[in-house]
Design a protein that fits this description.
It is built from 13 helices and 8 strands. The protein is an alpha+beta fold. An 8-stranded antiparallel sheet has the order 4-3-2-1-5-6-7-8. A hairpin with a 6-residue loop joins β3 and β4. α1 packs across α6 and α7 packs antiparallel against α13. The C terminus is likely disordered. It comes from Mariniradius sediminis. It holds the Pfam family PepSY_TM. This is PepSY domain-containing protein. Keywords: Membrane, Transmembrane, Transmembrane helix.
Length: about 400
């Protein structure tokens, strides 16, 4: 019975891998690079991110006033890194522009280092990697491929199907890996480097997949979240984070809203640091109207930094804390549900898990290649056996006819 079940799972594993192989290679290769997206961009464009610490930092309020005056716009948010040698990022909205532009400011001199209006080569390259990973670069194709959907939607669909097939391959691979005899378990955990290239390729496929199993499963089970709406809603309902879409409110004539009050960014930052004392990056969102709260989020930094930002809300007049939504206060299910992105990218526990995800992504990239070679070698071996049997079966006939 076990042989029959194992054979069925082998067939499913094989055809799932052959069908999605090329897409999986493209998605996993770009994912391997994109794991360190932030680090690559900050290293390549360090002139905008890294500054020389001075004796005293300029107050955020002064930097904001200076930036708004020189660029004739309104600051909508500010991001403060938890390191002393990092720039401060102000998002500034101008009247003639649709979206805010990020300006990188030296907090010791007040000078504008750069903006994200013009893409650097590193940003452009990583943008292509993201496009390949998410939409297989089909969003870069100008002419529509299908009339029923956009190229981005088509890329998302192909990606989602391939990811589901990869997940199916992971699940069936678990069953296939388990040996029939306990004595053969060691063979599935090591690579016989003294064997020929076919044996090494076979061992690499099985052994590396086994050691990366949990990471491959997490990556593949979270991947379809961005491809299928039904999968996204299912994930959210499973982990208790689903929120039904709000019905459109009736159009009513509203009284004109009052503009937001003036408040001190430095005081907001001070209150945030007092409430959340751990090292981390802080983002302050500036409300547009007087009846909106000041939204602050803070995320941890460090080698084992836990993903999941803490959210604080302050009222504008006296900067009193209105609401605190701490990630640690969520239930375990909700923490998983809200960590879908960090689970997928490996940022769930900072640099420690990002490195493990990086290695697992490399393994995932290699699996369709080593798996296809295993299938091809077996196919060639079967052809050779069939040819030998045919030759043996024809040989007596030839001898009889000769006699």
């Amino acid at each position: 019975m076990w042989k029959v079940v194992r054979k069925v799972f082998q067939k499913i594993h094989l055809y799932a891998g052959l069908t999605a192989g090329l897409v999986v290679i493209a998605v996993c290769l770009s994912g391997t690079i994109y794991v360190y997206n932030t680090e690559i961009r900050e290293w390549a464009d360090k002139d905008r991110y890294v500054v020389k610490p001075g004796s005293e930092r300029i107050p955020l309020d002064h930097l904001k006033t200076q930036l708004e005056g020189s660029l004739e716009g309104e600051v909508t948010s500010v991001q403060i890194y938890g390191s002393e040698d990092r720039s401060v990022i102000f998002s500034l909205k101008k009247a003639e522009e649709e979206r805010p532009i990020n300006y990188y400011v030296d907090p010791y001199t007040g000078g504008i280092l750069a903006s994200n209006k013009d893409k650097t080569s590193a940003e452009t390259w990583m943008g292509y990697m993201f496009s390949l990973h998410r939409w297989l670069l089909l969003d870069q194709v100008k002419e529509p491929i299908l009339s029923s959907m956009s190229n981005m939607e088509l890329g998302r669909l192909i990606n989602g199907i391939a990811t589901l097939l990869f997940l199916l391959g992971v699940l069936t691979g678990i069953v296939i890996w388990f040996p029939q005899k306990i004595s053969a378990w060691k063979q599935g955990l090591t690579v016989k480097w003294s064997g020929n290239w076919k044996r090494i390729n076979h061992d690499l496929h099985n052994t590396l997949a086994f050691y990366s199993l949990i990471f491959l499963f997490i990556m593949s089970v979270t991947g379809p979240f961005w491809s299928f709406q039904w999968y996204k809603e299912g994930w959210q309902k499973t982990w208790d984070t689903f929120q039904a879409p709000k019905s459109e409110p009736k159009v009513e004539i509203e009284a004109p809203k009052l503009p937001a009050a003036d408040f001190s960014l430095d005081e907001v930052l001070s209150k945030t640091q007092a409430r959340l004392s751990y090292p981390g990056n802080v983002r302050i969102s500036i409300p547009a109207y007087a009846d909106e709260p000041i939204s602050v989020s803070k995320s941890q930094i460090g080698f084992w930094a836990r993903a999941g930002a803490d959210q604080l809300s302050f009222e504008q007049s006296r900067l009193e804390l209105v609401e605190a939504k701490l990630f640690a206060d969520l239930s375990f299910r909700q923490q998983i549900g809200r960590s879908v992105k960090s689970l997928h990218t490996g940022e769930i526990f900072g640099q420690a898990t990002k490195f493990l995800w990086f290695l697992a992504c490399m393994v995932a990239t290699s699996l369709p290649i080593t798996g296809t070679l295993i299938w091809w070698n077996r196919r060639t071996k079967k052809k050779q056996k069939r040819s030998r049997r045919m030759n043996l079966s024809q040989k007596p006939v030839l001898e009889t006819s000769a006699s």
